[in-house]
UniProtKB/TrEMBL annotation:
Descriptive protein name: 6-carboxy-5,6,7,8-tetrahydropterin synthase
Organism of derivation: Clostridium cibarium
UniProt pathway: Purine metabolism; 7-cyano-7-deazaguanine biosynthesis
Entry keywords, A to Z: Lyase, Metal-binding, Queuosine biosynthesis, Zinc
Entry's family note: Belongs to the PTPS family. QueD subfamily.
Length: 142
């Protein structure tokens, strides 16, 4: 079995609706995303001969994930989230907001990222998303 991995980092703020405690405030993290692709065999011909996948394809896909979330405020698309979005719209400054259909925890985000990469045709087997240097979520489909 061959596994290749690559990593990107991004800064992101999130709001966890329905959460009580310190993290109920809008706050941010420096996220570290590590993705693994696996294959039992290597490509046998052409440009990809001897490879699981071209690292430049792989890195491009991770760059797109990075750009989706980097320096954005991530808010869940529900009633509470929409109230927050609407109140931010009343302010004179403009915030880069990205709505998601889930509570933006490391767990939900790692599953979302896994599915986005899978949809692109990558042989993704594991997504690990660090929310802090010590805490991460690993999502696999096994
Ligand atoms: Zn957080």
């Amino acid at each position: 079995m061959f596994t290749i991995k690559s990593e990107v980092q991004f800064d992101m703020a999130h709001y966890l609706s329905g959460y009580e405690g310190k993290c109920s405030n809008i706050h941010g993290h420096r996220y570290r995303l590590i993705v693994k692709l696996k294959s039992e065999t290597l490509h046998k011909e052409g440009q990809l001969r001897g490879m699981v996948d071209d690292f430049s394809n792989f890195k491009l896909a991770l760059k797109e994930i990075e750009e989706t979330f980097d320096h954005k405020l991530i808010i869940e698309n529900n009633e509470e989230g929409m109230k927050l979005i609407n109140s931010l719209k009343d302010l004179p400054m403009e915030f880069q907001i990205y709505k998601v259909e889930y509570r933006p925890t490391a767990e939900e985000m790692s599953r979302d990222i896994f599915n986005r990469l899978k949809k692109k045709g990558l042989a993704v087997c594991e997504v690990e998303l660090f929310e802090t240097p010590n805490n991460s979520c690993i999502y696999t489909e096994e």
